[in-house]
């Protein structure tokens, strides 16, 4: 399940209430408010979708403008102590996962232009607001930590919006919707300015701290594969779910799930085969069920296909494996 910092979630609720959404609209979400934790991304997206439906357009712009370094934990502190503005973007690329695991960043630095790419598919309406808020926030952070008026030269969003001028006024540059990718593009020289509180030693300490936090998250991320394995085992006999169905169950898009598995050098197909293999060997070893029944219980429609797969996994046919136990 995708998650996000609670400070971002709490500020979205506060903004929605200040703009006219009632406590009746947000009662469930207000009750869920927490401090210093990560909350399901789905909840933030639902708040964004309520705002899009009932409030003035541009909630993502207004949400992004109210977010600052204090909302981002150790990552926010690192932004303050970066030596240059470009380091802010480097840190968000490397440590975005500390704030949310829904999406990722890429940074392409050339001599004249620097491009930040946000990889997050619009798999529901609230993602549009989330992507808008992310770019507005980042430009605001650059201005906050440098004390300069740093603006991009071009902004692109993959989703549609009825009035691009709404964002052009804030970014002070062309803003394109229905683009190929989500990008913030800057003149590279504008990102070479120093930050107000640049501190090489404190920043290095914070980088080490973020690496520790990232490592701890990676350990916790094993929960992801555990959840997938559990789901596959429980559903195997009734039909193996697709990656889209598993993604829906976990609260993320199929693309995000593929990427998160790829980060672990895994594929969805490999997890399916691993679970089929484990279930098949367990049933062959500990039950009296026929090979045909085991084939069905491991998600195969034909015994012949199961036989071929099992021999590929173990080098033995199912009956031969059982005989040699």
Automatic annotation (TrEMBL):
InterPro entries: AraC-type_N (IPR032687), Homeodomain-like_sf (IPR009057), HTH_AraC (IPR018060), Tscrpt_reg_AraC-type_HTH (IPR020449)
SUPFAM superfamilies: Homeodomain-like
Name the record gives this protein: AraC family transcriptional regulator
Organism: Meridianimaribacter flavus
PROSITE patterns attached to this UniProt entry: HTH_ARAC_FAMILY_2
Residues in coiled coil: 203-234
Ranges for domain HTH araC/xylS-type: 226-324
Record keywords: Coiled coil, DNA-binding, Transcription, Transcription regulation
């Amino acid at each position: 399940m995708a998650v996000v910092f609670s400070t971002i979630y709490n500020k979205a609720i506060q903004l929605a209430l200040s703009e006219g959404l009632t406590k009746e609209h947000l009662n469930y979400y207000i009750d869920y408010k927490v401090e210093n934790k990560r909350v399901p991304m789905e909840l933030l997206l639902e708040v964004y979708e309520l705002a899009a439906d009932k409030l003035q357009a541009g909630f993502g712009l207004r949400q992004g403008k109210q977010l600052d370094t204090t909302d981002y934990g150790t990552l926010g502190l690192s932004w303050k102590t970066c030596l240059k503005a470009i380091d802010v973007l480097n840190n968000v690329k490397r440590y975005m996962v500390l704030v949310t695991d829904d999406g990722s960043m890429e940074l392409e630095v050339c001599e004249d232009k620097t491009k930040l790419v946000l990889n997050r598919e619009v798999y529901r309406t609230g993602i549009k607001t989330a992507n808008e808020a992310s770019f507005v926030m980042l430009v605001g952070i650059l201005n906050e930590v440098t004390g300069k008026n740093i603006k991009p030269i071009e902004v692109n969003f993959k989703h549609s919006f009825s009035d691009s001028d709404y964002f052009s006024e804030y970014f002070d540059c062309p803003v394109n919707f229905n683009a190929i990718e989500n990008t913030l593009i800057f003149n590279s020289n504008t990102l070479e300015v120093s930050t107000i509180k640049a501190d090489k030693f404190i920043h290095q300490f914070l980088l080490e701290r973020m690496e520790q936090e990232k490592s701890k998250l990676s350990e916790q991320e094993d929960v992801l594969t555990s959840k997938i394995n559990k789901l596959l085992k429980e559903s195997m006999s009734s039909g193996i779910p697709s990656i889209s169905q598993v993604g829906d169950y976990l609260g993320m898009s199929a693309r995000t799930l593929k990427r998160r598995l790829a980060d672990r050098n895994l594929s969805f197909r490999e997890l399916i085969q691993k679970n089929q293999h484990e279930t098949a060997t367990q049933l062959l070893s500990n039950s009296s069920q026929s090979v045909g029944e085991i084939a069905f219980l491991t998600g195969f429609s034909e015994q012949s296909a199961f036989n071929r797969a099992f021999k590929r996994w173990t080098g033995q046919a199912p009956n031969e494996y059982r005989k040699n136990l």
